[in-house]
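Our working data are protein records whose layout never changes between entries. The record below serves as our worked example for the rest of this section:
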Amino acid sequence: MNIAFINFNKRWAGVKTWTVDYGQELVKLGHRVVMIIRKGTGHKDIYESAGFTVYEIRAGMKYNPSTIYKLSKILIKNDVDVSVVNISKDLNIGATASKLSGIPVVHRIGLINDIRNRFEDRALHKTIVDAVVVPSHFLKAELSEIKWFNTAKINVIPNSKMAENYPVPERKGEGKVFGITSRLDASKGHDLLLEAFSRVLKEIPDATLNIAGTGKREGRIREQIKELGLEDSVTLHGFIKDIPAFLSGLDVYVLTSLEESFGNTVLEAMFAALPVVSFDTGGVPEVLGGTGILTPTGDVEALAEKMIITARDAALRRERGEAARKRAEEVYDLKKNTHRLVELLEEVISPR
């Protein structure tokens, strides 16, 4: 198959990680991946190194006829069999160009907010979208509550990883190194994490917190670190390319997202055999499958308490980390789930 992934999102987010992960496996299986992205994102090299054929174009306004025409030419030139789109601009431009070119469309939805109860969304899903992919049963249930949404089109294909890319180190740490890999966005709750960590330091003075990621909240996070006097204990690492290496240096992974349809970073921590302390939010409990240590969402005191307990209990860390790795290998194996994606794409293409 020739598969086009269309993503006009400016920032690097979970859907792009999903695209690279699954796209690489599709290439290994002999399929061809065409990646169409917004010009100027700086992500072209990442996709090319994954083995994709990459096109950069300017998206312009919604339903931009010039962009739709250019995109149609690219799709036809590359003999694309099926297009996978994501955010609303991918849908109104990418899906439209695909359908006009006689190409079926799969809409990958990562967040409930990707869908609005607008005439536009209702019309596009009724007339253009052939199938929907979501990463969790939690999100499928949320979409099923939308009266006009055709739930028969929904397919759960979770974010997945290759276990061999996450070698499990022999952790000899004392449980004092905490970390998070997440976009620096208000919804990720870094402010609550810093408050909780300041309480952890009162019990474990030599604990450290490592924060990987970039985003619009970076300035505010730096200010809060100074306000709480955490400069010597918290490190902002910025954008990290080698996530497995970063995770190998941690003892405990902490997630403070206030909303999360899946939790791709949690999955990475699970593959790294890390114990996960997280807010009980969205699809995270589904992903963890009982292997994590959950606290009520937004409860800083409870979060700090669980962080301290986990740091002090080596047996608990080992038990939860091993259980997390086992679940990740069984449920979120990329090779196995890529075959599920291939089956879906072939099913969508077959009526042509």
